[in-house]
Structures are given as C-alpha cells and as structure tokens.
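Run folding on both entries below.
>entry_1
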Amino acid sequence: MYASNGDTISLNLQNSPTETSGTLDILPYEKDSRMGTISNGKMSGDNLFALFTSSQEGQDSECEIAFLKNGEDYIFSNDIYGESNYQYNKDYTKGKFIDKTKIKFDGEVLKKVSSCSFSVLASVSLVYVLIFYVCYLTLV
C-alpha cells in the first residue's frame, strides 16, 4: 500500500509455485482511477514482472508492469508512464517494456500492511479506502 498527498495505490498479491496474481488499484487524488487484476506474474531475481489488465474511463487495457521486491515491500516502476523504455500500441490498450534490463524502479514504495487491512481494502468501496488512508496517516 502506498498513500501520499491523497494518492493511494493498493497491491494485493497471491503467490503460487508457478505464478503471482492479484489486484492493483491506482487511485490518484482528483484524477481517474485505474483498478485491475495482475496475472502471469513471474519473479526474476528480485523483480516481479506481470500483466496488468485494467479499465479507465471505459477503456480496457493490458500492460506489462514491473516491481522490485525489497524485503516485504514492492517498488513500482514508473517506466510505464514514459516512452523511453515502454511502448504502447496506437490506442494505448496494450503496453510492454522495450528492454527489461533497463527498467528503473523509481516509483512509489508499496509497504506491506496486515492481512486484515489488505482484505478490507480489496473488498470495500473507494469511500472506505479513503477512510483507511486517513486512519493510516494517523498511525504513521
């Protein structure tokens, strides 16, 4: 979970011996949210590569994403927001890394929260996510 300046990112992962799957909800303050599923996740060293299927403003997309595992935390790659190492098709519904060896993990650090809090985050409305965010800030 990442929360700062009203922005919230919630990552919920389930690991199996063959792949990692889960959900990723990107909830920027006063902007359109992007909520979706993670599938086909594979660890390569400390890097998690996966497919993120989501919807934003009624348009579905399927994009590669990457995280750097650091202890129990995951660092998000902001490469998906630029085009120096990321390529989208014409209508931005599919995206992939150009060179996975050049990925910069310079994004938000998603901190591990308790299982109870995570399951609550995954199953409640945005209103409750914002309430959790306020409670989270009072604990930090």
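>entry_2
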Amino acid sequence: MEEQAILDNNSFDRGDIGISENTKQYLQEAAKWARFLAILGFVLIGFIVILAIFFIIGIGSLAESFNNMGGMGVSFVGGLYLIFAAIFTYPVYRLYMFAKNGLDFTTFNDPEKLEISIKNLRSFFRFYGIFGIIYIAMFVLGMLVSAFSLIS
C-alpha cells in the first residue's frame, strides 16, 4: 500500500503539490508533443484558409468546372473550408494551451499552471467527444436517408 498520493491536498495549499519527478517528466514530454501537434495544426489550418481564399476568389478554369457540377460554386466550397478551419481552430488552441501551461508547470512548479493545463486538455477531449457524437449521428442519419430512398 502506497502512502504518498500523487496530489496531497494539504501540500496543495502551500504550493507544493507533491507530484513525483517521473510524473513531471511524463507531463513535460506529453506537453512537448502536444505543442508540436498544435503548431502543426495551426500550420494546416493556415493552409486550409489559404486554399479557401483561392476557392472563394475562383481560380480560373477550376471555377468553371465546379460550376458545371450541380450548381455548387467554388465560392461555396471555399466557404465550407473557412467554416472547417474556424471550427478546428478551437481544439488546436486548447491543445496548445495545454502544452504551454504544462511546460510552465514543469518549469516553475506552479500548481495553478497544472490546473489550467488539465482544464485545457479536458476541453480538447470534450470537443472531440462531442464532434465524434455529431459525426456518428450524421452517419446514421445518412444511412437512414439512403435506406429510405432505396425503399421508395
């Protein structure tokens, strides 16, 4: 039976939260990878925004070929790309804030930074959980619509 808890409530009030060095190293490594993935996410969102701008401006012959495809214009596709970029900026930002505050905690040993870091990680996973539920619901709805259209 281990007597030392990872977080000791009495020491938390003093600013010494009693996290082992191994735990700090794990958090530091996770935060470094999270920072890398967040920066990569920001770069990819930037590319999506640039692509959306090109679509909205309507890049020459590509615009004509898209306009011949059921009336859905290139500007509409560009708008969808902008919406996609705006939606996925939130989880990338939360991942970055988890990394920043996690690294600050391992450097300065500030318990408030650990709390903020974990809060941002919770928001990141909550977003993807809700997004996953919406995605599955839309998939099931699409399957039902397809099934009813085959029956009719």
